[in-house]
Amino acid sequence: MTPFNFNLLMFMAMLVAPMALATQHVVGDNDGWSNPRYPEFYAEWASLHTFNVGDTLFFNFTKEAHDVAEVPQEAYDQCHTQGAKVIIKSAGEVKLTSCGAHHYISTRKGDCETHQKVALYVQPSSV
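^ that's the sequence the OP posted. Answer follows.
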C-alpha cells in the first residue's frame, strides 16, 4: 500500500481551491443581456455583486439579437461602438482575468444608447 502523501494533497488542494471559489455571474440575472427595463438596470445589477479575478460573467442572449464588446471607459461613456472588438456573438462567458474597471457594451445599433452596457470593478482573487 502506498503511504499517504500530505504534501501532494496540499498541492492539489491549492490548485483546485481557486476554481472552486470562482463565481459565475449571470449578467442581468433573470433578465439576461438585453435592452434594460430602465437606464440604471445594469449599474444596479453590478452594485449587488462582488467581482474577483477568476470569476466569470455569463452573458445570456439570443444569437444575433445582441453581442458583447469590452471597451475603454470613454467608449463606454459615449457609446462609441466603431472599432470595438466583439468578444461574444451569442450567449457565452467572459473570464475576469485582471483587476480594475471593466466596461462591456452591446455594439448592435441602438443597444448601448438604450443603456445595454455594464461597468464593473474586479478585485484581486479572494484566495
